[in-house]
Design a protein that fits this description.
The protein is an all-alpha fold and 226 residues long. It has 13 helices and no strands. It is found in: Mitochondrion outer membrane.
Amino acid sequence: MSDSSSIAPRFGNMKALLGIVAGAGASYGLYKLLSSGSLRKSRKGTRTDSPDVSAMKIQPGSLLAKVSGLDVVCARPVTSKTVDVASAGNLEPKHLKMLLSCLQTSNKQEDKCRILLTLGNASAFTINQNLIREYEGIPLIAGFLFDPAADVRVQSLNALNNLSMNIENQEQLTVYVPKVLELIETSPVNSELQLCALRLLTNISVTDKHQHLLKDSIKLYCLCLL
């Protein structure tokens, strides 16, 4: 296969992913988007495709097609059955992998925020919490705690907050406690960034197992709660 035909699917998938994250809301936005009304009916007829476009891997009726709202171009009439999508919990493993891959290569602040927001909403579901851990997504998401943009750090913390509701995930999250404490100390008082960091520490310290990590920062923690 030529380089041009192999690049087209990649751009097609990335365009669809950006469509997914663009539809994400501040709180379970993806859930509201997908459950707000009946799904659109597949368009009748076909289009004439170039070799590059016909190589796209987005299937008509798939989750990517529905959420992105993009027209799906195919080389033959649409025959796939309509898939009922109830919430962000119905994201398939391959979609999570694609989001994590896109997050890893994204350079734009807006794209980072949208992808992190979508992953955060998806992380409200146990099955996705486990999958993201298995796909080594926790270190990737936590890496954005060091991003220079405050908005990106906030979305990273929000995603980690949902991921921290999983006991196994907490084991991986403990290594980022020093950075979270730093964010609490250096962020403006009562800012969204500081509050998100405090929530993450609260979730991690729910069990006795990890409370010792905060013993040297109890004073700071209490002052922020005043």
